[in-house]
Design brief:
By secondary structure, this protein is of the alpha+beta class. The chain folds into 2 domains: about 40 residues, no CATH class; about 200 residues, NADH Oxidase (3-Layer(aba) Sandwich). It contains 8 helices and 9 strands. The chain has a 7-stranded antiparallel sheet, with helices on both faces. A hairpin with a 3-residue loop joins strand 5 and strand 6. Helix 3 packs across helix 7, helix 4 packs across helix 7 and helix 6 crosses helix 7. About 35% of the residues are buried. The mean pLDDT is about 90.
Length: about 270
């Protein structure tokens, strides 16, 4: 911006403030001073329920194996996707591509842009809604048959992408935990939505656990629509043991696995 343009904008703003003050019988200098104090305070002295910036993601050491952004889009109309969405267990034998797996997570839990929230900069606006915009739910991927991913578990970091948390035979663990669900043998991945109650506790207190459950339900429905739009099949699971998931995903003690969604190919 040229110096003259900045000066002109400042002059117009000052003139507008003077008019507003005069029309409302407010002392112009007092009003201007209060506005400037409020604006500068947003940067230097946050005054909210968050004396330190909210935590929106888990920080895990190690290199990411895939970037955070969605690589795939859908050409299907929204209401066509809504009509096509269904709990499908008839998975094909083909592996999922890494681009599709990342895109399912990114279009659900990825960052659309940044904003100022609770007097702090850098708050993520995610594609999926959450209570207070505090991102109480994280997404993890148990990779069973995904091209480009070694079998194991991965955390989806909206800034870095997929970060490995565990390498090993996940398929055998899942099969042993759910021996009657033979259809899971063809699943290419299982996405686990994990609640982080402490992220919303600072604002909502005793409501934190309930809001995590609500956020997980919203995210699960959103993810199923994304999976359908990207021409994969998905089915929500309700019976994977919490202890198994916590161990396999390498979760912190305060994190709670809430919803699991099996995803597979159509062919």
């Amino acid at each position: 911006m040229h110096e003259n343009d900045a000066f002109d904008r400042s002059a117009r703003l000052a003139e507008s403030l003077e008019i507003i003050a005069r029309e409302n019988d407010i002392d112009h200098e007092t009003m201007t001073g209060k506005i400037l104090h409020m604006v500068t305070g947003l940067v230097s002295e946050p005054k909210s329920s968050f004396p330190t910036p909210p935590t929106y993601r888990r920080v895990i050491e190690g290199e990411s194996v895939a970037g955070p952004g969605p690589k795939m889009q859908s050409s299907h109309g929204f209401f066509d996707v809504v009509k096509a969405r269904a709990s499908r267990r008839d998975f094909g034998d083909s592996p999922l591509s890494l681009d599709i797996m990342t895109s399912i997570l990114a279009w659900t839990l990825g960052q659309r842009e940044e904003t100022i929230a609770y007097d702090w900069r850098g708050a993520p606006l995610r594609y999926c809604a959450s209570a207070g915009g505090l991102a109480s739910v994280d997404g993890y991927c148990l990779a069973l048959n995904v091209n480009g991913l070694a079998e194991g578990s991965y955390y989806y970091d909206y800034q870095r992408g997929l970060v490995q948390t565990f390498i090993g035979a996940v398929t055998e663990k899942i099969a042993a935990a759910l021996p009657s669900m033979t259809w899971l043998e063809k699943a290419a991945a299982i996405v686990v939505l994990v609640g982080n109650p402490e992220r919303v506790d600072r604002k909502y207190g005793v409501m934190a656990s309930k809001l995590c459950l609500t956020d997980a339900g919203v995210a699960a429905g959103h993810l199923e629509l994304v999976a359908t739009a990207l021409e994969t099949r998905a089915c929500i699971l309700g019976s994977l043991p919490v202890a198994l998931l916590s161990e396999t995903l390498v979760l912190e003690p305060e994190q709670i696995p809430l919803v699991s969604i099996a995803i597979g190919s159509r062919t």
